[in-house]
Specification:
Helix 1 packs antiparallel against helix 2 and helix 4 runs antiparallel to helix 5. It contains six helices and eleven strands. It has 244 residues and is an alpha+beta fold. It has a seven-stranded mixed beta sheet. Strands 1-2 form a two-stranded antiparallel ribbon.
Length: 244
């Protein structure tokens, strides 16, 4: 198929959905240096908003709603320890540290273990093929997928998988192309709203998601807005070796 023919095909719709296969070929075809890549399945973002659906899915993942909520509350408590004397990113940094620690305290055992692959701090379940991290976000449980408060590094993008298409055009469709463990984040915003979500990354931020599971859509019982300015937070530290 020529480029002209591909562009014509892109503009045609079938059953109300855009035919993305030719567009994919244009971006990852032989002449663009991606001859070995194949078209992955395109899926609409799966959003579980009802508490019953969310709890069932969380249990399927080998997690517990109680354990995840404990991690949310531990993170928010730690964020609340930041004062005006601390650096501006202290609330987010404190929350991130305690969020990860609480996830590990609540789930590490026979099936879950500590994982630091690529400098990204997570818990990992090899039997389920899952990795779970923690992230402060702008707005959880909203209409759109959350955005992280800090840039996501290359290690996170490798774990989550990149977006190969215009995220504005394909906001509600993503490629289910995980290599290895599926990567989810426990995402928490300043009002205590929280979701556990498998995002896609483009341009150091989240652009769409494969699955979103609403954990605390109304926030926690304390309606306290926290300053979660995470500029400079070391969530995706990739160690470098230098000569002395």
């Amino acid at each position: 198929m020529s480029r002209f023919e591909a562009h014509e095909s892109i503009e045609q719709e079938s059953n109300g959905y855009l035919d993305r296969a030719p567009f994919f070929d244009l971006q990852v075809g032989k002449e663009n240096g991606h001859e070995g890549l194949k078209m992955a399945e395109w899926v609409a973002t799966k959003v579980l908003k009802e508490s019953w659906d969310a709890e069932c899915r969380i249990a399927e993942m080998g997690l517990s709603t109680e354990g995840l909520i404990n991690a949310v509350r531990a993170a928010r408590t730690a964020s609340g320890n930041a004062t005006a004397l601390h650096p501006s990113n202290a609330a987010g940094t404190f929350g991130y540290h305690e969020g990860i620690a609480s996830l590990r305290q609540g789930f590490i055992g026979e099936k879950w273990r500590i994982d630091r692959k690529g400098g990204v701090e997570t818990i990992r379940n090899d039997e389920m093929g899952l990795r779970i991290g923690f992230c402060n976000v702008d707005r959880a449980c909203g209409e759109k997928a959350p955005k992280p408060r800090s840039d996501k590094g290359a290690a996170s993008e490798r774990a989550c998988g990149p977006m190969l298409f215009d995220p504005d055009e394909l906001r509600y469709f993503v490629r289910d192309d995980a290599v290895g463990h599926a990567f989810y984040y426990l995402m928490v915003d300043g009002a205590g709203r929280a979701e556990i979500t498998r995002p896609k990354i483009s341009g150091k931020t989240f652009e769409g998601a494969v699955e979103r599971i609403f954990l605390l859509p109304e926030g926690d019982e304390e309606d306290t807005l926290l300053n979660l300015d995470d500029e400079g937070i070391a969530e995706d530290f990739e160690p470098k070796i230098v000569r002395k």
